[in-house]
Amino acid sequence: xxxxxxxxxxxxxxxxxxxxxxxxxxxxxxxxxxxxxxxxxxxxxxxxxxxxxxxxxxxxxxxxxxxxxxxxxxxxxxxxxxxxxxxxxxxxxxxxxxxxxxxxxxxxxxxxxxxxxxxxxxxxxxxxxxxxxxxxxxxxxxxxxxxxxxxxxxxxxxxxxxxxxxxxxxxxxxxxxxxxxxxxxxxx
Length: 188
Prior knowledge:
This protein has 188 residues and is mainly α. It has a single domain, classed as Arp2/3 complex 21 kDa subunit ARPC3, CATH 1.10.1760. 64% of the residues lie in helices and 2% in strands. The chain has six helices and two strands. It has helices at 19-40, 51-63, 67-81, 91-106, 118-143, 153-181, and strands at residues 111-112, 115-116. A two-stranded antiparallel ribbon has the order 1-2. The longest helix is centred in the C-terminal third of the chain and has 29 residues, at 153-181. The protein is elongated. The N and C termini lie far apart (45 Å). This is Tryptophan transport protein.
């Protein structure tokens, strides 16, 4: 009699974003663009809240991309920001930096019991880092002679902190329902 061999199930390593991941990123970034256009038009302080950040944070939370994929998501988000009035090209730097922060935080064990703090901490810090990067690049451009007119730092910081708070709430509210609707599992 032959011995029965144990069967092993080997899970294939993820090698990039699936088509559904790409579509999800595209839809979420489009939602962020619509929010930025309509809600952002209510602000007239020179710098407007950027809801595209909330949407790429949500996308990164849901799909857990590799580091390089998160950078590309940030670049695409920055490119979408170029459609809107404002200081050109700076979002092409600030959004990838924010996406990198989110990608790093997605893999850290940020939990209290069964409650994941990743949406809250990740979105708040990513928005804050993206906003501070934006401000830093803007001021650097100004002090090197570029034709930009930055507002006082205090005004910028209030807008960045306010945007970080609003983005955090948006992502926290949407994360669990979207995660469950997309079948992304109950565990983080």
